[in-house]
């Protein structure tokens, strides 16, 4: 399972761990991923996603999963989230 947020595309970053003596060794910064079930109003069901805690805050701020998906660009969404976006757009059109 990839360590990447399905909604924002946030992934692993690399950098240096710097000691008090300024010795530098490589380290990884992992995103804070959580498994959540979000309710889609347009689809009328819950959707299980693995997203970052920051993305969860963004979803709540934008007014729910549907609003977040419609505003997000396809470049940052995972394939599964892109399929969800198409389903939401089709459900809202009909």
Summary keywords:
single chain; 94 residues; alpha+beta; Ribosomal Protein L24e, Chain: T; two-stranded antiparallel sheet; two-stranded antiparallel ribbon; 3 helices; 4 strands
Tell me what you see in this structure:
- It is a single chain.
- This protein is of the alpha+beta class and 94 residues long.
- The chain has a single domain, classed as Ribosomal Protein L24e, Chain: T.
- 34% of the residues lie in helices and 30% in strands.
- It contains 3 helices and 4 strands.
- It has helices at 53-62, 65-71, 79-93, and strands spanning 13-18, 24-29, 33-40, 45-52.
- Strands 1-2 form a two-stranded antiparallel sheet. It has a two-stranded antiparallel sheet with strand order 3-4.
- The termini are far apart.
- The mean pLDDT is 96.
How would you sum up this structure in a few lines?
The chain has a single domain (13-93), classed as Roll (Ribosomal Protein L24e, Chain: T), CATH 2.30.170. It is 34% helix and 30% strand. The chain has helices at 53-62, 65-71, 79-93, and strands at residues 13-18, 24-29, 33-40, 45-52.
The proportion of residues in beta strands is 25-35%
Q: Strand order within the widest sheet? A: 1-2
Count of all domains: 1
Helix content bin: 25-40%
Mean pLDDT: 96
- Report, as a whole number of angstroms, the end-to-end distance: 35 Å
The CATH C-level name is Mainly Beta
Outline type: elongated
- The arrangement of helices and strands along the chain is EEEEHHH
CATH T-level fold name: Ribosomal Protein L24e, Chain: T
The count of strands amounts to: 4
Main β-sheet description: 2 strands, antiparallel
Q: Label the structural class.
A: alpha+beta
Low-confidence stretches: none
The number of helical runs is 3
Radius of gyration, Cα only, in angstroms? 17 Å
Specify the CATH homologous superfamily: Ribosomal protein L28/L24
Name of the CATH architecture: Roll
């Amino acid at each position: 399972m990839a360590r990447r947020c399905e909604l924002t595309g946030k992934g692993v970053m690399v950098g240096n761990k710097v000691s008090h003596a300024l010795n530098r060794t490589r380290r990884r910064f992992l995103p804070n991923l959580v498994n959540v079930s979000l309710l889609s109003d347009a689809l009328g069901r819950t959707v299980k996603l693995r997203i970052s805690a920051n993305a969860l805050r963004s979803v709540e701020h934008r007014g729910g999963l549907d609003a977040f998906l419609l505003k997000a660009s396809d470049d940052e969404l995972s394939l599964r989230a892109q399929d969800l976006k198409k389903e939401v757009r089709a459900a809202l059109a009909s």
